[in-house]
């Protein structure tokens, strides 16, 4: 309070100063304390209107902005009043601020006098740090305004998102076979972001071997996938090898924050190839019909990663239905383990003649079929003696060595060999008979016109040429210049795999240089001669013979038993060389002898007929 004394008639003037601190109407009361005798207290009301400059500020919305990428916009403060404004502070309403900041053109320093009707602008930079919505306010404080002026600044961060699952072909494929609709697979690229499209820059296989490839149409480059959408591309698989095959698809996209959004997404494509390694059957060739041990084995190898289920069928083409038999595996359906192998064994046990069968497999990754061939045969058994002709004198000992030819793996434990001879010319010296093959016992049995040697053993005769025995003969004095001793095989019924060579039985011609009754060797060898061609013969034989005297003659054909088969010719001839054709078409195969008989002189020649 202020004490003032007024003199009578004095007048005092007061100045009231109004300095509003904010806009709006302000009132004040001035109270005068006057003594009551002078009228009492008096009040004077003083009113004033505080006027503040009116300012405005922009709202800035950055919208969607890639995380990590900076975008700049300007914000403007305007003085829309008729008086200047004194700006005392410009800052963010909420601190700290991580996503927005003042940019290159910054707010003016404060205090700042903003003239009436003018404006000031500065930069706001938005760099979203995450994919959320962001909001802050630019706060402007000015003299005369108790409440700061605020400008809304907003934005939302985004990052495109990509999703692509690995791909697997479920059905193993044979090598070099391309996948089909039964196991069609696709590369599916998803844009899982709900805010923005996804830019695909490139899609490619990093390795072209394998082999995987895109179908039609193939993915291009620099194409966009809308938000929450996807793109699909067919994948084809043609395995080039067996086993698990895996390759990578590289997808380059902008699904990343920052200013250079180049990100690689890898998708692994996996499939399985099947293959089969095989070995081949060889022809079985000629196999003895009694040999049950002829087998061949092929190996089916599975280099892949999954077992291969296989089945087979065996079909007879030619010959016996039981000639070929699959002995391993025991079932027509079997599995070849992953990374392993299975053996297939075929046994060949033929009957006589050519045999053929087809062995076909199904379920294999490559076509597989075998043609099985072989021939059932018997082993030919021949007997030979050590010389086709031998010359012995009367009263001497004739030793003949008997040999069996190669039996071609046939094991024989019994043989019967007939030795045919004329008992008026020679006789067996049985006490001096010698067996020359080990572990064999030979028992001779004399019969009319021949002796049968029955051999048994404790160790079977098998491969190779073997000497059987030596036969000693006594040679008698005779009128006959020469005569045969013949070997033949008997009783073949016990040996199903043997084919005795009846048609080529072995005969030896025994020549005696001295005749009974004093005929000399020279006369006997020059007076008569005989030649047979061809020999062996099948249909016709040309007989060439010579007679040294005018004499009766007879030409006869005998079998190996010494039995007369036919008289070829007979009569009386002068000396000379003669030829005659003989038809042997109706005569069975075997060993025969042609005998030319002229008076007291006889000459023979062997003839073999083989049909």
Structural class: mainly beta
**Runs with pLDDT <50, length 5+?**
515-528
Shape summary:
rod-shaped
Q: What is the CATH T-level topology of the largest domain? A: Immunoglobulin-like
| CATH arch. level architecture of the largest domain | Sandwich
The residue-averaged pLDDT reads 85
- Rg (C-alpha, Å): 64 Å
Give the termini distance in whole angstroms: 170 Å
Strand share of the residues?
Answer: over 45%
Describe this structure in words.
It is a single chain. This protein has 6 domains: 1-51, no CATH class; 55-158, Immunoglobulins (Immunoglobulin-like, Sandwich); 162-274, Immunoglobulins (Immunoglobulin-like); 277-368, Immunoglobulins (Immunoglobulin-like, Sandwich), CATH 2.60.40.10; 379-511, Immunoglobulin-like; 527-609, Immunoglobulin-like (Sandwich), CATH 2.60.40.1930. It has 1 helix and 50 strands. The strands form 12 sheets. Strands 13, 14, 16, 18, 20 and 21 form a 6-stranded mixed beta sheet that branches.
List key phrases describing it.
six-stranded mixed β-sheet, 1 helix, 611 residues, Immunoglobulin-like, mainly beta, 6 domains, single chain
In short:
This protein is an all-beta fold.
């Amino acid at each position: 309070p202020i004490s003032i004394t007024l003199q009578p008639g004095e007048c005092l003037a007061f100045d009231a100063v109004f300095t509003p601190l904010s806009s709006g109407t302000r009132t004040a009361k001035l109270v005068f304390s006057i003594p009551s005798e002078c009228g009492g207290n008096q009040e004077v009301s003083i009113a004033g209107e505080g006027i503040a400059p009116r300012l405005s500020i922009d709202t800035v919305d950055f919208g969607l902005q890639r995380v990590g990428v900076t975008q700049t916009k300007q914000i403007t403060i305007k003085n829309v009043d008729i008086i200047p404004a004194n700006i005392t502070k410009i800052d963010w309403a909420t601190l700290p601020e991580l996503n927005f900041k003042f940019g290159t053109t910054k707010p003016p320093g404060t205090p700042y006098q903003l003239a009436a009707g003018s404006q000031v602008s500065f930069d706001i930079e938005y760099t979203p740090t995450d994919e959320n919505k962001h909001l802050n306010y630019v706060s402007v404080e000015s003299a005369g305004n108790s409440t700061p002026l605020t400008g809304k600044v907003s934005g939302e961060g985004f990052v495109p998102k990509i999703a692509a699952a690995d791909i697997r072909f479920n059905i193993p494929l044979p090598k070099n076979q391309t996948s089909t609709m039964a196991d069609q697979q696709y590369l599916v690229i998803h844009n899982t972001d709900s805010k923005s499209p996804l830019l695909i820059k490139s899609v490619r296989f990093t390795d072209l071997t394998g082999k995987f490839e895109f179908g039609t149409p193939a993915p291009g480059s620099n194409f966009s996938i809308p938000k929450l959408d996807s793109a699909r591309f067919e994948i084809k698989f043609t395995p080039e090898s067996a086993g698990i095959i895996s390759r990578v698809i590289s997808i380059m996209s902008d699904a990343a924050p920052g200013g250079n959004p180049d990100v690689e997404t890898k998708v692994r494509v996996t499939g399985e190839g099947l293959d089969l390694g095989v070995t081949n059957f060889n022809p079985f060739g000629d196999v003895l019909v009694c040999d049950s041990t002829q087998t061949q084995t092929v190996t089916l190898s599975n280099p892949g990663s999954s077992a291969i289920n296989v089945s087979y069928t065996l079909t007879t083409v030619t010959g016996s239905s039981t000639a070929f038999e699959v002995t391993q595996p025991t079932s027509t359906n079997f599995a070849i383990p992953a990374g392993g192998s299975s053996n297939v064994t075929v046994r060949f046990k033929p009957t006589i003649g050519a045999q053929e069968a087809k062995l076909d497999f199904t379920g294999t990754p490559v076509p597989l079929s075998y043609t099985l061939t072989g021939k059932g045969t018997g082993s030919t058994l021949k007997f030979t003696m050590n010389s086709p002709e031998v010359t012995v004198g009367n009263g001497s000992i004739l030793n003949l060595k008997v040999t069996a030819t190669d039996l071609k793996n046939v094991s024989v434990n019994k043989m019967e060999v007939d030795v045919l001879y004329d008992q008026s010319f020679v006789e067996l010296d049985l006490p001096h008979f010698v067996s020359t093959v080990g572990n064999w016992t030979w028992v001779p049995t004399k019969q009319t016109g021949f002796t049968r040697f029955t051999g048994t053993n404790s160790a079977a005769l098998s491969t190779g040429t073997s000497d059987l025995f030596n036969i000693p003969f006594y040679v008698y004095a005779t009128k006959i210049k020469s005569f045969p001793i013949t070997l033949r095989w008997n009783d073949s019924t016990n040996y199903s795999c043997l084919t005795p060579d009846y048609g080529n039985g072995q005969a030896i011609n025994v020549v005696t240089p001295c005749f009974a009754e004093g005929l000399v060797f020279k006369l006997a060898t020059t007076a008569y001669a005989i030649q047979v061609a061809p020999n062996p013969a099948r249909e016709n034989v040309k007989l060439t013979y010579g007679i040294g005297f005018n004499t009766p003659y007879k030409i006869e054909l005998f079998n190996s038993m010494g039995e007369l088969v036919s008289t070829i010719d007979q009569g009386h001839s002068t000396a000379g060389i003669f030829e005659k054709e003989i038809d042997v078409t109706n005569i069975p195969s075997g060993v025969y002898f042609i005998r030319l008989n002229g008076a007291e002189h006889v000459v023979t020649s062997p003839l073999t007929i083989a049909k």
